[in-house]
Amino acid sequence: MPPSSSAPGLSDSDSNAMLRLIIDAATGMMAYYEAETLCCRFANHAYATYYGFEPGEMLGKQPWEIMGADNWQAIAPHVERCLRGEHVRYVRQARSPQGLPREIEVRITPHLEQDTLRGAVVQVTDLSLGRSVQQQLDESEERMRLFSAATHEAILIHREGMVLDANAAMLRLIGYSLEEIRGQSALQYLDKEFWPLALEGIQSRRSTSYKATVRHKDGHSIPVEIDGLPMPDGEGTQDFRLVVIRDVTAHQQAQAQVRFLAEHDALTRLPNRWYLSEQLEQLIARARLENLAVAVLSLDLKHFSAINDSLGHLAGDQVLCEVAQRLCSCVRGTDLVARAGSDEFIVVLAGGTSRAETELITRQMVALLEMPCQVAAQQLVIAPAIGIAIFPEDGENVETLLRNASAARYLVKDNGHEPFHFYTPALESRASRMLNQEQLLRQSIALGGFELHYQPQVRTDDGTLAGFEALVRWRHPERGLVSPEEFVALAEARGLITAIDRWVLRQACSEACAWYAQGMPRVPVAVNMSAQEFRHADLASDVAAVLVETGLPAQLLHIELTESTLMHSDAQVQRTLHALQQQGVRLAIDDFGTGYSSLAYLKRHPIHQLKIDRSFITELPGNDDDAAIVTAIVQMAKSLRLRTVAEGVENAAQLEMLRTLGCEMAQGYHIAPPMPAEQALQWQKDYCHKLQAQ
């Protein structure tokens, strides 16, 4: 090893040990050869490893023993130059001991003492590695450039907070050009309240993820999600940061829309029963603390089913929207108006309303509701029935108040005189009337007091018949034909729904087969089933038995169920659904879009068809929000390989728009109203004849 002077305070041995440590730590390859014998007197770890030796094994070996005769022959002339006292530098092609091609740079420095050549220091640099790293960096930068240009996510690169580069998406997001932001502090494009989060990531040099708002050039704020990632530079430091910024405006708007739909009625945009119950519970808690009264009004419309039956559901929906607007216009800002379902509304008068004030507001409400309204080119008069219960005397919780208000409302519908009535304990006699209705319903089940009406479904592209939905009607001994909205809840509560659903299933399958036998198109028939039915272990076997009994092919039976059935499904429901699927029966979600926002059930359950709720069709083609919702449902259904049916199609413009949006099928009064079986058969004959003539 070449002689060296000791560092102050260190012995020669310590100094030599330190020097060797420093040289071994160097990434370059170094060795020292004696001039007279050309024997290696020192080699650092990198040099020895390159030639396949341990450093100690190199000592005493001559160049040709280390690198081989062929390599020695190539470098011998350079060594001769060094032995003559020249500083030598050259680049040559070589192969590593592993046989890999390399390009190396060699520097040979003569070691002179008093003009006497004592040896030579050899430094070898593998240029291939550096060029490979540079090539990889160049390729990486090119890939990053292409990725940054192609991605829709905004990307910013900064060093210690100073902007170095940004992709086009980032520039669009903040409204600046690259020249305007390069060299500027990245923080100035964040709203100040989020600076501490950004600084924490920069200073700690760790990965960070957080939500923030960025400030556009024009001054408006944009909600974003930010992922900051440390990015080593060519020297292995972590001064660079790559920041990925996602604009979540649309996501937040979608979440808000989802929350709104979960808490509000899709048709009237009023709070739904669930949201009302939650708010009413809070009002009661506050009223209890402040010793205040709260009035709960349960309201529905007399003879509303007649509007639907005579003028169609579109007219009925217009009436419901008109009622919603009128109710909202006659209450105070602290009060609540909600739609509980069908034609039932709930109004909550908060803030210590007395009984006299409640009566005054109710009379004003009745007067406003009874004013004529124009619907379907006809002038209608709405007749409300309102029941009132007051906290705390008529009930101390949400359930009791709603139940008692409903009991008072039923009294109004029964006597037909006053439009509203306050709850009294005497209304408990309503239980006897409910018992009477139950007995009538049981008699009708025993005597076959039901009939099916069929509403056709057609394809939107060519108008061909695609199927029928079977809708049950109760032939009430006193009131005539009654729609299912008026008796299904009672049937479910009294355990009678299974008998009704089984009759509907058998009758629909039987009548469909009778149509096929007369040459009618073999299109599916759809039946609705209560959510309770899917929790019965024998539903699938009952369906199979009916199919065998009637001869209807399983694929021509569609069973419609609600979103709530799937959202609250247990293991038995899942087993039932899969058993029906294995039989070949098709499953459809009725009134799709009005349930809760989570759509995970579409993956878990064997669904084949979505029926888009009529509330999204009513205002087409003029309502952009409804058009966007229908488009989203159709596109989602296509991606999941599901078919779509639009309900409540009332005019040609709606049908044409649905065709344009890609909805496959439609049903509604524009096509045909629900019809008894014989009339539906004749309609099929006429419709098929008309299509053949076209």
Description:
There is one protein chain. This protein has 694 residues and is α+β, with helices and mostly antiparallel strands. The chain has four domains: 12-126, Beta-Lactamase, CATH 3.30.450.20; 151-247, 2-Layer Sandwich (Beta-Lactamase), CATH 3.30.450; 259-423, Alpha-Beta Plaits, CATH 3.30.70; 435-682, TIM Barrel (Alpha-Beta Barrel). The protein is built from 25 helices and 27 strands. The strands form five sheets. An eight-stranded mixed barrel has the order 18-19-21-22-23-24-25-26, surrounded by six helices. Helix 12 (304-311) crosses helix 13 and helix 19 runs parallel beside helix 21. The longest helix is centred in the N-terminal third of the chain and has 24 residues, at 127-150. It is elongated. The chain starts with 11 loop residues before the first helix and ends with a helix.
Characteristics:
Alpha-Beta Plaits; five-stranded antiparallel beta sheet; alpha+beta; 25% strand; Beta-Lactamase; single chain; disordered N terminus; 4 domains; 27 strands; elongated; 25 helices; eight-stranded mixed beta barrel; 694 residues
Secondary structure blueprint with pairings:
Elements: H1 12-25, E1 29-34, E2 40-43, H2 45-50, H3 55-58, H4 63-67, H5 69-83, E3 88-95, E4 101-113, E5 116-126, H6 127-150, E6 154-159, E7 162-166, H7 168-174, H8 178-181, H9 195-204, E8 208-215, E9 221-231, E10 240-247, H10 249-263, H11 273-290, E11 294-301, H12 304-311, H13 313-329, E12 336-341, E13 344-349, H14 355-369, E14 373-375, E15 378-380, E16 384-391, H15 398-415, E17 420-422, H16 430-447, E18 450-459, E19 465-476, E20 480-482, H17 488-493, H18 497-517, E21 525-528, H19 539-550, E22 557-562, H20 563-567, H21 571-583, E23 586-592, H22 601-604, E24 609-612, H23 624-639, E25 643-646, H24 652-661, E26 665-666, E27 675-676, H25 677-693
Parallel strand pairs: 16-17, 19-21, 21-22, 22-23, 23-24, 24-25, 25-26
Antiparallel strand pairs: 1-2, 1-5, 3-4, 4-5, 6-7, 6-10, 8-9, 9-10, 11-13, 11-16, 12-13, 14-15, 18-19, 18-26, 18-27, 19-20
Helix pairs in contact: 12-13, 18-19, 19-21
